[in-house]
Inverse folding.
């Protein structure tokens, strides 16, 4: 880690939150259509893009179930790795089954990839929390609705010191490579046991706090490194790294134009969504969003801090930022590409988990580019749920899903932790639907 760090005196950016916090600005209306319920902690709802119309419901507890093209939820799991995971707490936990990605040629090769929290491996530091594992599986040759559980091939393992900040969503980009987000290791402030002196997110000798990009198409090895990865051949960098300076980038998605949107969960004051590009440094733990951050005083944004990373690179600001005024954690979604609500075309549909940990009352949000913003921050407007007395979801918003038609889904639960069977998957529809 070399390079000059320049300290600047600057006023923290204060985006215009008028639309976020003005109840009169709660628009547009959106309807929710129940698709499936009874899960414990829904994490993803995705398609295999194999022409069958099936959707795959991923639950944090280790189970993936299928919703058929005609809307039927199959009883038998598509995949069940619950007995291979670390034991997770039903009251609250950020570990578990966190990501599922189907190979772009899944219809032909039956390959799928899973990201989950395994028990701490033997060679890991004693007392750490878990080993996050990326594995490849094959669909059963006899049953397209079942995974061959004996086909697991472990591709990557990353040991984690604390329970939280595991990230989760894995996805293939339009380039055919697999993108893997990893949190900074957990705890708070990116300091403490298992954290580098300058923080894991800023330290390039660890994979934690990064977005990784790997090639899983080389049959001779578990994975190979794309030669156009930004740090290939650079001393002090893992070549898997695509971008860094992230706290807990647990929801990521590509849009039709190949842009990578990453919701990076904030700490005490600010939430952010980043438009991640090759080699970018997104600031944690020098900054929280566009604002300066001090690990020794996380409840106040300092007036000054470095505007560069340790290599002299300029820190990249998010495209969306908001504060914790009745909000807690950003939940990343998708750029809308469907046809049910044409007014949303090109907008980023996402949400906030809840106003508190006590009772779920998450907020659906819509973000759009704002030409008036001097910091290129998008405008953000809360949406009102049609038929809801208070206009809110009235549950914890856990994740979003997308089908082959570009239509979106919101995944909710009444419980903060993976328990209770209150998980629901709703399709976002026009209010009159």
């Amino acid at each position: 880690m070399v390079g000059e760090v320049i300290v600047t005196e600057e006023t923290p950016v204060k985006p215009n939150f008028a639309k976020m916090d003005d109840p009169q600005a709660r628009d547009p209306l959106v309807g929710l259509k129940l698709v499936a319920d009874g899960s414990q902690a829904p994490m993803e709802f995705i398609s295999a893009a194999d022409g069958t119309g099936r959707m795959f419901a991923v639950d944090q507890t280790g189970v993936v179930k299928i919703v058929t093209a005609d809307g039927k939820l199959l009883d038998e799991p598509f995949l069940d790795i619950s007995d291979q995971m670390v034991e997770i707490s039903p009251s609250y936990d950020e570990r578990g089954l966190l990501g599922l990605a189907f190979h772009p040629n899944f219809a032909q090769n039956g390959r799928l990839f899973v990201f989950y929290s395994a028990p701490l491996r033997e060679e890991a530091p004693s007392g750490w929390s878990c080993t996050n594992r990326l594995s490849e599986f094959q669909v059963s040759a006899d049953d397209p609705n079942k995974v061959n559980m004996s086909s697991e091939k472990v591709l990557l393992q990353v040991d984690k010191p604390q329970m939280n900040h595991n990230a989760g969503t894995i996805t293939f980009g339009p380039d055919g490579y697999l993108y893997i987000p990893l949190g900074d290791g957990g705890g708070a402030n990116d300091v403490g046991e298992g954290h580098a002196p300058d923080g894991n997110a800023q330290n390039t000798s660890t994979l934690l706090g990064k977005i990784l990009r790997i090639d899983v198409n080389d049959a001779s090895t578990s994975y190979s490194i794309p030669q156009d990865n930004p740090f290939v051949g650079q001393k002090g960098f893992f070549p898997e790294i695509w971008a860094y300076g992230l706290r807990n980038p647990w929801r990521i998605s590509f849009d039709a134009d190949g842009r990578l949107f990453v919701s990076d969960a904030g700490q005490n004051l600010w939430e952010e969504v980043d438009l991640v590009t090759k080699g970018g440094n997104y600031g944690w733990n020098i900054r929280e969003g566009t604002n300066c951050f001090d690990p020794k005083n996380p409840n106040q944004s300092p007036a000054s801090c470095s505007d560069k990373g340790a290599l002299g690179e300029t820190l990249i600001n998010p495209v969306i930022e908001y504060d914790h005024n009745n909000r807690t954690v950003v939940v990343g979604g998708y750029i809308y590409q469907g046809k049910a609500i044409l007014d949303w075309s090109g907008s980023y549909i996402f949400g906030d988990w809840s106003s508190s940990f006590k009772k779920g009352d998450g907020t659906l949000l819509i973000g759009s580019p704002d030409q008036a913003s001097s910091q290129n921050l998008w405008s953000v407007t809360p949406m009102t749920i049609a038929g809801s007395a208070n206009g809110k979801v009235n549950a914890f918003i856990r994740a979003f899903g997308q089908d082959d038609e570009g239509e979106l889904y919101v995944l909710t639960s009444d419980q903060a932790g993976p328990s209770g069977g209150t998980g629901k998957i709703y399709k976002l529809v026009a209010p009159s639907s």
Notes: The first helix runs from residue 18 to 21. The chain has one domain: 9-429. The first strand starts at residue 7 and ends at 9. The two ends are 55 Å apart (CA to CA).
